[in-house]
Amino acid sequence: MARTRFALGLCLLATLVSPALADACADLQAAIAKAAALKGAMHREAAPILSLPQIPPHSQAACAASQTLRDHIVALTRLIDAKCLTDEQRRNLTTNLNKTLAEANSNISLFCN
């Protein structure tokens, strides 16, 4: 009887924890998709300026897009959960985020002065 109660308790606990984990994983996937969209926005704003022979010292749109992406990446790193990604996926995501963060920081130093 005690084993049955224990097993039922574990099943109940699993059903309570599962939706929270599913929500966390869904939030992570949404944040990853948003980061890709923000990176595209940053590239759209920066590309025309970077193709000029003389880069202007300040560009509000490129600066804002780069800062928004950087802030989102910082928030995204807090959402990364080992239960939502495999080790390889986590490594790939971390590598890509580091590269994107470096690019955003570079654009911030170019356009936000």
What does this molecule look like?
- By secondary structure, the protein is mainly α.
- It has one domain.
- Helix content is 83%, strand content 0%.
- It contains 3 helices and no strands.
- Helix 1 packs antiparallel against helix 2 and helix 2 runs antiparallel to helix 3.
- The longest helix is centred in the first third of the chain and has 49 residues, at 2-50.
- It is elongated and about 50 Å long.
* Rg measurement, Å: 21 Å
Q: What is the H-and-E element order?
A: HHH
Regions with little confidence, pLDDT below 50 for 5+ residues: 6-10, 12-17
Q: Biggest β-sheet, characterized?
A: none
What portion of residues belong to β-strands? under 5%
Please tell me what the overall shape is. Answer: elongated
Helix content: over 70%
Structural category: mainly alpha
The number of distinct β-strands equals 0
Determine the mean pLDDT. 84
Number of domains: 1
Spatial separation of the terminal alpha carbons: 71 Å
Number of helices: 3
Output the keywords.
mainly alpha, elongated
List the helices and strands and how they pair.
Blueprint: H1 2-50, H2 60-79, H3 87-111
Helix pairs in contact: 1-2, 2-3
